[in-house]
Amino acid sequence: MKLLQRQGCYKLHQITNVIAGNIIGHSLCSYLLKEAQKSTRIINHCLSKVSIRTVTTASIRQRKYGTVLLNSLKQGTQYSDGHKGWLFKQSINLFSNGTLFENQSDVEELLKLWTKKFEEEGVSEPRTSAELIIAHALGKKMLHEVPPEYTVDLSTNLVIQELCQRRLQRVPVQYIIGEWDFHDLVLKMKEPVFIPRPETEELADFVCDFIKSSNLQNGKFLDIGCGSGAISLHILNSFKTITGVAIDKHNHACDLTRGNSRNLGLNERLNVHQIDIFEKDTVEKLQEYLPFDVVISNPPYIPTSDIDSLEPEVERYESRDALNGGKDGLDVVRQILYLAPQILSVGGQIWLEVYLGEPEMIKELVKENKSIIYLTTLKDFTKRDRFCVLEVQ
Amino acid sequence: MVMQRINYCFGKNLYRIKQKWNPVMTWCKYSHMLSAVREPCGMLQTRKGLLLSQLTVRCRTLQTLVGVETILNSGRHRRPLQKCCMRNELLIFTRGYASLQNIDDGLLIKYLDSLNKEYNDIFELYQTGKKTKEMASRRVFLEPIVDVYSGMKEKYNELEELQLLIEEDEEMKTMAEAELEAINQQIDDMKQQILDILVPDLKYDKNDAILEINPGVGGEEAKLFTLDLCNMYQKYISYKGWSVETETSLSKESGGLAYARLLISGYDVFKTLKYESGIHRVQRVPETERGGRIHTSTSAVSILPQPTEIDIVINPNDLHIDTFKSSGPGGQSVQKNDTAVRLTHTPSGVVTSSQESRSQIQNKKNAMNRLREKLYEIEFNAQMSTMKSQRKVQVGTKGRSEKIRTYNFPQNRVTDHRIHHTSNIQGILSGEDVLDELINQLHEESRKETLIEMLQEFESKGSL
């Protein structure tokens, strides 16, 4: 920054900052910026400082600046020298031939446009992706909340463009819009923290039923591998007196869980710790909370051999550590079962979500084990065995 | 059965009511009048105190005489007791049992006699130890009627004696006549009680309700009228102290409503509103009309009881759940953003779906609720169509296509075509006592018709 100022390019820095923040997604603008990048190192430097991530969330709040910028570019006689002048000239060109306004359209048109584009690029779920992104850019959850004739203004249009560009790179919609629903909660989502699946919603529901039926409303639970904190937060939201501990191997997941719990006002009853359960001192770290009444986990359970055949959304963007369950997919499950007798009270239960076929393998695992018994297997909404319930004796 | 009736003038005698009611309820805040209720020895069957909060609203808005009726003896007869407590007291007290005037007294007594006989038969069988389930339930049903009826017979005897007295003794005449009137009044009261017991509640009367209003013929004007109706019902709902969730879709052009759906919950909601179902017609000069001509448009109101989970039990095995199909192993290996859910109920073939939420499980819950509503509607319609009746006041789908009411703005009147009752339009649209009175009259009319139907059936069969 100081360097830039010294070079007397402060104004230019400002412009590029705003551009990067708002109109980078527009096809012509990105072209424009590309040219600018080529022609000047300074702009290049500025751009490298603005990460695309900030674009998506910040720009929605500040999208009006996009219009302001374009307006100032339109009148911008003050930037008439050098590269600035080039930018100015380009923008005047854009305005004079009306290219920028061509995209000002209603929701229905936009939806068609982007659905088609996604289809062409082979993005999965083209229609819903486009719907969700457009709705998000308009500040809504779902597109049916927006009337189809609603006219999208220019700056929003540019935001949508930017977000959809990311979808074309197969980024999961949840990461693009930065949030997702889990039961009736809205949770923030952040790359590369694992996105909760509908099966996990079911698991959380089953656990809530169990807590209710065995009167553990004042109990304590442990969520191993909390990710975005979805399971813990749903339980805390369902029972007003229960307390919990959520642990994850990664700091980014712990931070996200903390953030989500704060947003929902549930942080007082949830302790979040960064703990890798494969480390030897796990039990000592949890000492102050012991014993737990129930342990819930959606551990990584995909066998390593299957990892490479995953969809690009999962494979490229979600944390491997949240998916890879080792050779037979049971590495983490084994460790949980090893720890369980030390951290659970007698009669405490373990609730797990696992891969197809794994419930049988787990049954085999605990056959020899005297301290843990296998209680039951529950089915998911596709009526396949998905959830395991075990109990410590 | 001993009945005590407490009639108080609200306002002036507030503290007297308070004293009398103290064993019956907890007086919370004076300003809120009757805001909380405790069940006195499990006798007053009030749900969440709504009865009394209703009363409160009435008192506040009407500022008028309130009749409060309560039974202070043993809780032996649940049924009549509930009845007495739940009746909309005010009109019954002030309008003097209009509903009984057209009923053939002789036939009613004959009917009651046969019921009495039946009860005695059952009682004898009971004592000999031959019990069946049907007998037991019949006995529970008959017992209060017989109780009141025996009281009524006593009164009739007294009445005869008095009449003899009047004929014999000229001096006693004035005194006896006053007493005569009192006894007649008591007999009327008892008849009313019997009427209440005899005309049973529908299965769904206690349920919450879903009220839907759709504009019919008349374009934008019909949509504007739909808005008026929706406002009217919302005011009525707050007048009754119910709670409501509203779902509307606004028409852009005129600002009217293209659709309105009110989920109403509270005390006796379906029972109260069930006669609102039908076509409501409006005659007025629309705002959009420049020539000053009067237009006629309609709105269709339909009301359905809201199912509870207990009413409709859905076996999970009967459900076929469609979600976004993925061929793979599911779980962590699939990352989808399509959360739409479609449910198929295999035995009935009913299909519902939901895609409102980004959470699949929420969508599933929504779809389940919708499925429950649909199955309930089917069952409800089936029950309604088995109700044979020539009644003018019809309930549910039977009367849905029928024009029930006209709102005539130029003549400032609302006419209900079923009972030929006319009220002023502002009163009705303000959704307070005038509408309440109309609804109550419909109820009385319906009750009367049910009773007449019962008596006719009894007459044609000769016995039960």
TrEMBL record, chain A:
GO terms for cellular component: mitochondrion. It comes from the Eukaryota. Pfam families: MTS, PrmC_N. Residues 217-302 form the Methyltransferase small domain. Keywords: Methyltransferase, S-adenosyl-L-methionine, Transferase. The keyword NAD does not apply. GO terms for molecular function: nucleic acid binding; peptide chain release factor N(5)-glutamine methyltransferase activity. Residues 109-178 form the Release factor glutamine methyltransferase N-terminal domain. GO terms for biological process: methylation. It catalyses: L-glutaminyl-[peptide chain release factor] + S-adenosyl-L-methionine = N(5)-methyl-L-glutaminyl-[peptide chain release factor] + S-adenosyl-L-homocysteine + H(+). CDD domains: AdoMet_MTases. Its EC number is 2.1.1.297. Gene3D superfamilies: DNA helicase RuvA subunit, C-terminal domain, Vaccinia Virus protein VP39. InterPro entries: DNA_methylase_N6_adenine_CS (IPR002052), HemK-like (IPR004556), N5-glutamine_MTase (IPR050320), PrmC_N (IPR040758), RF_methyltr_PrmC (IPR019874), SAM-dependent_MTases_sf (IPR029063), Small_mtfrase_dom (IPR007848). PANTHER family: HEMK METHYLTRANSFERASE, MTRF1L RELEASE FACTOR GLUTAMINE METHYLTRANSFERASE. This is peptide chain release factor N(5)-glutamine methyltransferase.
Automatic annotation (TrEMBL), chain B:
GO terms for cellular component: cytoplasm. SMART domains: PCRF (SM00937). Keywords: Coiled coil, Methylation, Protein biosynthesis. Residues 152-193, 354-381 form a coiled coil. Pfam families: PCRF (PF03462), RF-1 (PF00472). InterPro entries: PCRF, Pep_chain_release_fac_I, Pep_chain_release_fac_I_sf, Prokaryotic/Mito_RF. The keyword Coiled coil applies. Residues 161-276 form the Peptide chain release factor domain. The keyword Coiled coil applies. GO terms for molecular function: translation release factor activity. Belongs to the prokaryotic/mitochondrial release factor family. PANTHER family: LD18447P. This is Peptide chain release factor 1. It comes from Mytilus galloprovincialis (Mediterranean mussel).
